[in-house]
Design goal:
This protein has 206 residues and is mainly α. Helix content is 80%, strand content 0%. It contains 7 helices and no strands.
Length: 206
């Protein structure tokens, strides 16, 4: 109940000020039992109001902190899962090299073999879409990093959907290759953005 200490101290100071004023203005009233009864009754009523209000604010702050922690952990789990699957646990530098090599090799095959690459359907923002109405409870830096990550993720998934269309398959191979390279380059960018989002969420939690 430490959070109530300032409120109770404030009530005590208020009572002392009231007695001081009464002593100066009408000292004879301090000898009247009815006056003390009224003061004590008013004190209990005021204390009840103030304590109830403070307990309510404390409970609200605690619930908001818990909700902020829950949302942060949920987003961290989703982003980490996506990053681990994409980069196979590698750090940014190694993952960039690996995915870059896959991208370049596939682009060559698309041009030389008239290959239409297979691009799987992905949905990696289920948690984000669920908590988006409450994302304002996070720290500003965390919000910025998380929203940036998911905005780019949405663009990448939209581009992936384009690569699965008959229109893309009908393009000349020399046009298909750079589109695929852009798709893979964007996925590499997502690893960096995922790391920044995770760091921002960790910082906000601590």
């Amino acid at each position: 109940m430490q959070f109530l200490r300032p409120t109770l101290i404030g009530i005590g100071i208020g009572v002392l000020l009231l007695i001081t004023v009464m002593h100066r203005v009408a000292p004879s009233m301090l000898a009247e039992p009815q006056i003390w009864q009224a003061v004590i009754a008013g004190l209990f009523i005021a204390a009840g109001w103030l304590v109830t209000a403070e307990v309510g604010r404390h409970t609200e702050r605690r619930q908001q902190a818990q909700r902020r922690s829950d949302i942060g952990r949920a987003l961290r789990s989703e982003i980490y899962s996506f990053r681990w699957q994409l980069a196979d646990g590698l750090d940014l530098g190694e993952a960039t090299k690996r995915l870059g090599a896959i991208r370049d090799a596939m682009a060559i095959r698309i041009e030389n073999e008239d290959l239409v690459p297979f691009v799987a359907t992905e949905h990696n923002d289920t948690v984000y879409r669920t908590v988006l109405p409450e994302i304002h409870v996070l720290a500003e830096d965390a919000i910025a990093a998380v929203v940036r990550f998911y905005d780019v993720l949405k663009n990448v998934e939209d581009l992936g959907a384009d690569l699965r269309t008959a229109s893309y398959a009908a393009l000349d191979a020399k046009r298909r290759a750079p589109i695929y390279k852009r798709y893979m380059t964007s996925k590499i960018t997502l690893i960096d953005l995922a790391d920044k989002a995770l760091n921002a969420l960790d910082t906000a939690e601590n």
